[in-house]
Design the sequence.
């Protein structure tokens, strides 16, 4: 099952009431963004973390950045207005694409899990995820793809 099928099936379960409210909250917070290509990486507007629900302004925990030029998406977790992590969604075990679930990432292939800083929390993966430097600049954040 790929990421899109997983999200579609998970949200279908949420809508039908088959999963507890915690899972419903994670469905609502998954937001995909097409990143803008920059000279040294990719950027997104900080407003992508904002959304309105029942007339309240809320902030997403994370978003997933995609672009045709990226082999894998990037999970961007927001700790505060000035602190983010950006993680390559490629499992460090055998390279499967990871699935984001709130403040952690899971691998559908063999069950490895990683926290929101890319640190392995459950094997069989032994190496942390590739991560990128994130710089908030005015109304956007820039993910530097030159190093890891
Ligand atoms: S490829 Fe991710 S745990 Fe094996």
Sequence:
């Amino acid at each position: 099952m790929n990421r899109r099928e997983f999200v579609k099936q998970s949200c279908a379960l949420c809508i039908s009431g088959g999963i507890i409210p915690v899972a419903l909250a994670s469905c609502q917070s998954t937001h995909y963004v097409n990143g803008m290509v920059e000279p040294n990486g990719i950027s997104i507007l900080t407003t992508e973390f904002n959304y309105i629900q029942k007339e309240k302004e809320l902030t997403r925990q994370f978003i997933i950045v995609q672009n045709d030029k990226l082999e894998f998406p990037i999970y961007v977790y927001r700790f505060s207005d000035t602190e983010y992590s950006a993680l390559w969604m490629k499992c460090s075990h055998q390279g499967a694409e990871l699935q984001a679930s709130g403040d952690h990432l899971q691998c559908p292939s063999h069950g490895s899990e990683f926290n929101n800083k890319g640190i392995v929390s459950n094997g069989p993966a032994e190496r942390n995820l590739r991560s990128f430097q994130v710089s908030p600049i005015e109304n956007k954040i820039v993910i530097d793809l030159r190093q890891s």
